[in-house]
Amino acid sequence: MNGQVQQRVLTNGNAEKHLNNNVTKPSVRGQWGRAWNVDYKTLLGAMFVLFVCPLMPLLMHTACGSYECSISSMVLDVWTHTPPFVLPSVSMYAVKAYFVWMGLQLLLSVLPDIFHHLVPRYTGGMQSGAVTPSGRINHYNINGLQAWLICHVIWFLNVHWLKLFKPSIVFDHVTEFMIIANIAGYSLATFVYIKGRCFPTHENDCKSSGNILYDYLMGVEFNPRIGDWFDFKLFFNGRPGIVAWTIINLSFRRPPTRDPRSRDRLHGSPQH
């Protein structure tokens, strides 16, 4: 350690010195922006986000695909059970495809970035983040553009030569992927909540309101991590979904020829 210091101005206006080893004396615990106390309005909002929002895309998709975009017809179908309302199923093919995609993103996230050597003014490679409430500076491997390009090269190679999967894979299994993503999202949130309460990466970067539902939604840890390099926020916010955005568009651009009145794809019948 060479003794260099950085200045950080805390929210109360006081300055604190930090040594360049990225570990400093802890500041006041929980100095980051969200409610300490949760009123009933905030709790109702948290419950809406947790229990209603995840279902809305699935219901809208089902209404558009099976009920000619009539929400009232879908609700009536569910209410009267005439004809019987069939819940979508999930095929093993879709589950495997989802985990292959997640594994690929995990692999690409740890590769060294070369784009910042090739693209002028592109900020990539190992970068330092902002100072956390406990006075730490986390480091990040910024290689999202590289991961995006590799995935799309694989996509186009598959379309024209490899033929490992249909270009319409997302279109064919969109309802299944929505269900899997919701299950994975709740599982991830549960794990991160338990981690923040029981074995946080840095205890002084944790904050709890005392309300389980609110803390479950907003998070307990400021930067939940495993080890020094796997950052939950960076990976899950910036990789599986963001990188897939354009691939989803490409998949929907190449749908198979199918009777638009058919409910097969909405009820999980595998088409591959």
Automatic annotation (TrEMBL):
<keyword id="KW-1207">Sterol metabolism</keyword>
<comment type="similarity">
    <text>Belongs to the ERG4/ERG24 family.</text>
</comment>
<keyword id="KW-0756">Sterol biosynthesis</keyword>
<keyword id="KW-0444">Lipid biosynthesis</keyword>
<keyword id="KW-0812">Transmembrane</keyword>
<protein>
    <recommendedName>
        <fullName>7-dehydrocholesterol reductase</fullName>
        <ecNumber>1.3.1.21</ecNumber>
    </recommendedName>
</protein>
<feature type="transmembrane region" description="Helical">
    <location>
        <begin position="98"/>
        <end position="119"/>
    </location>
</feature>
<keyword id="KW-0472">Membrane</keyword>
<keyword id="KW-0753">Steroid metabolism</keyword>
<dbReference type="Pfam" id="PF01222">
    <property type="entry name" value="ERG4_ERG24"/>
</dbReference>
<keyword id="KW-0752">Steroid biosynthesis</keyword>
<keyword id="KW-0560">Oxidoreductase</keyword>
<feature type="transmembrane region" description="Helical">
    <location>
        <begin position="140"/>
        <end position="157"/>
    </location>
</feature>
<dbReference type="GO" id="GO:0047598">
    <property type="term" value="F:7-dehydrocholesterol reductase activity"/>
</dbReference>
<keyword id="KW-0153">Cholesterol metabolism</keyword>
<feature type="transmembrane region" description="Helical">
    <location>
        <begin position="177"/>
        <end position="194"/>
    </location>
</feature>
<dbReference type="InterPro" id="IPR001171">
    <property type="entry name" value="ERG24_DHCR-like"/>
</dbReference>
<dbReference type="GO" id="GO:0016132">
    <property type="term" value="P:brassinosteroid biosynthetic process"/>
</dbReference>
<dbReference type="GO" id="GO:0006695">
    <property type="term" value="P:cholesterol biosynthetic process"/>
</dbReference>
<keyword id="KW-1133">Transmembrane helix</keyword>
<dbReference type="GO" id="GO:0005789">
    <property type="term" value="C:endoplasmic reticulum membrane"/>
</dbReference>
<keyword id="KW-0443">Lipid metabolism</keyword>
<keyword id="KW-0152">Cholesterol biosynthesis</keyword>
<keyword id="KW-0521">NADP</keyword>
<feature type="transmembrane region" description="Helical">
    <location>
        <begin position="42"/>
        <end position="60"/>
    </location>
</feature>
